[in-house]
Specification:
281 residues, alpha+beta, 2 domains
């Protein structure tokens, strides 16, 4: 009886083992498959950022002694400051740096400190911003224009710009930013994406034409190049544009920046993952 039970038990173990083997998949010869990052990379949660920006604005309004009911004008998609409210009850000033007559170095340091204070509404870390223009206008107003450089590749499109207009006595006339917030997290997502389209592929695509794309005004365009038109694939960039498939979202595309000097559109941007022209200007 004991031997019969032992034999039955061994038979059951063998049957279970055989069934398990039939269910288990053989190991992948290429190893575990990593998750493919979502593409294009999306900047989401605009409603949350708008709420956060509104809170920051009211905190700054209290700090500067502005009227409590002063409303803030925010950019769509980025929820950064589009412009200062008109007719402020109390002027906003840049921090005082230097003596009665500021040197250009004093002006730039004053601007830097102002950017630090207003960083949440600007949407960019000071280290990401490069001053590309500092001019005095004929009206007496002074202008400082910055470009955001938050990613491994240059940022292109209508985003990543900061403009501050002020007077010689440091009074801020206007502040406008469409910088991309949360850039560090977005860069992490972008870093996991490997371009599928090479520069040679991009060149071949453009030269084979015709090319269909949307210009900066949103108008569809078609472009056909002649065999003699010079074309230069310059570099990979991150191109930002509003999403067509998801409401209130901004898309970040890896794209090849292509120069066509003899064309009516001097620059085209070809998606380095999807092999299509996504913009031109």
């Amino acid at each position: 009886m004991g031997k019969q039970c032992l034999s039955s038990g061994l038979l059951l173990v063998i049957m279970l083992g055989s069934g398990a083997c039939s269910v288990l998949q053989p190991p992948d010869a290429n190893g575990p498959r990593s998750k493919v990052p979502a593409y294009p990379v999306l900047l989401l949660d605009e409603a949350t950022r708008r709420q956060e920006s509104s809170v920051v604005w009211h905190q700054l309004a209290q700090r500067y002694g502005l009227a409590d009911k002063t409303q803030v004008d925010l950019e769509p998609f980025t929820a950064t400051l589009h412009s200062l409210p008109p007719n402020l009850s109390v002027p906003v000033f840049l921090p005082k740096v230097g003596g009665p007559v500021q040197t250009e170095e004093d002006v730039r340091e004053s601007l830097r400190r102002f950017i630090v204070d207003w960083r949440p509404l600007i949407g960019a870390e000071p280290a990401q911003l490069s001053l590309i223009e500092r001019t005095d206008e004929p009206t007496g107003a002074r202008l400082a224009r910055y470009e955001q450089k938050p990613f491994r590749y240059p940022l292109r499109g209508a985003y990543g710009h900061l403009l501050i207009r002020f007077t010689s006595d440091r009074r801020v006339l206007d502040l406008s930013s469409n910088c991309i917030p949360n850039a560090d997290r977005l860069q992490t997502s972008l870093a996991g994406i490997t371009p599928k389209v090479t520069s040679e592929d991009a060149l071949s695509h453009v030269k084979s034409g015709p090319i269909a794309f949307t210009d900066p005004s949103g108008k569809p365009q078609n472009l056909t190049l002649s065999a003699n038109d010079p074309v230069s694939v310059r570099q990979l960039v991150v191109y930002a544009l509003p999403s067509k498939g998801q409401e209130n979202a901004l898309e970040l595309h890896l794209a090849w920046e292509i120069e066509i000097p003899n064309s009516s559109f001097k620059t085209l941007y070809l998606d380095a993952m999807e092999d299509r022209v996504i913009a031109g200007g």
